[in-house]
Amino acid sequence: MSTRKIGPLNEFNTRNVPVNRRTALAQLSAFAGITALTGQALAAPTQQENNNPTVAARKVRKIATEEAFMIPEVAAAVRDVVRKGGANLDIKLLTTVFDSPASATSQDPSKNPPPVSNRDAGARLLLPNLLDLDKGRLANMDGSGVDMHLLSLGLPGVQLFDADQAVGLARLSNDQLSEAIRRHPTRFAGLACFAPQNPREAVKEMERSVNNLQLNGFLVNSHTGNGYLDEQRFWPILEAAEALGAPLYIHPRAPSDGMAAPFRDYRLEGAIWGYGIEAGTHALRLMLSGVLDRFPKLKIVLGHMGEALPFWLWRLDFMGAPGARAGRGNQLKPSEYFKRNFSITTSGVEDPLALRFCIDKLGIDSVMWAIDYPFQPTAPAVAFIESAPLTDEERAKVAHGNAERIFGITT
Ligand code: MN
């Protein structure tokens, strides 16, 4: 395998990415949320792009690792929850996705009132695209050359429901996920959901998902009822994930009630900032509690380029060395946990400098590509991994090799 020489960081944008592609990406990002949703492919590459050695790497196999789906039964139950309202900070976005006037009539979009903005138009397509585990999703993937989606039940999973309902819907969701993978075994792999509300039942479902359904790991949407997985009542879940050798993807949701107040203004609660704070805090609780010393082989995956933690690692180690503060249980430095127990994905952060930093900081075997479909548009995410200034070997690991190893994807 050939290895291209890589220039210094400050040359990335000016030398390796042709100007016309940058312009195209800028135009695409103006329609973020719509371009991907409608399954449109990028415009055909120009001659200049075809001659560019970076873009020539576009044939690399691509497994996207944080790709959301929904089943009708969970969507209906989420709609019931959001109609009751409440202080929960996730309700704002969930209302947009699950209870917009358009989503209620999405089976016949021609009857919907016209959208008031591009973003409004994009939001209307979210639920139909989440529910599509066949033709439309595959067309979107094919339109940009995505080989596989590692699917997971979209936010909020089953974590807003009472325990019995959550247990039943988790089973149903995992069954439907498994059926979709059986229909398209070369295109889909999947992460199971479970109901942390009932840890005993969660463990049973985790075992069924791996042993019977052959799913590739688990995904949890951060806190459950304001509780975090370092709490002892959740330890059976961590123990099961470790024993099954299956990774646990900690996906964001809005900050829990105790830290919600400053995020209530300016729509700070979502992907712009609140999600990362919530998920990053969850990961740090697992490190500093010492629970990872109890479950040393537990594999955790963080999205969104590691929820900013890689950038923070030096300071975390300086302030968070073992024994630095009473009340902490960590036997290792945060960076040591990060390297032993964590890997990250690029979902929603298509920044070549951030990618380079994370690879250099964490190691090439710890970084996986993701789109975050249908919340992020597909084509720019593909352009990002195809044009990022990586060696061929690095690109292959990030685009598919690490996902195959970490999630046990064999098709
Ligand atoms: Mn996501």
Question: Concise description?
Answer:
The chain is an alpha/beta fold and 411 residues long. It has one domain (62-407): Metal-dependent hydrolases (TIM Barrel, Alpha-Beta Barrel), CATH 3.20.20. The protein is built from 19 helices and 8 strands.
What Rg is obtained from the alpha carbons, in whole angstroms?
21 Å
| Low-confidence regions | 1-51
Backbone shape = globular
Could you state the CATH homologous superfamily?
Metal-dependent hydrolases
Separate helix tally = 19
Reported CATH architecture: Alpha-Beta Barrel
- Small-molecule components bound: manganese (II) ion
Query: The CATH topology is what?
Result: TIM Barrel
CATH level-1 class:
Alpha Beta
Coarse structural class: alpha/beta
The rounded distance between the terminal residues' Cα atoms is 22 Å
Task: Tell me what you see in this structure.
With 411 residues, the chain is α/β, with parallel strands linked by helices. The protein has a single domain, classed as TIM Barrel (Alpha-Beta Barrel). Helices cover 47% and strands 8% of the residues. It contains 19 helices and 8 strands. The strands form 2 sheets. The chain has a 5-stranded parallel β-sheet. A 3-stranded parallel β-sheet has the order 1-2-3. The N terminus is likely disordered. Manganese (II) ion (MN) binds next to strand 1. The site of manganese (II) ion has 7 residues, from strand 1.
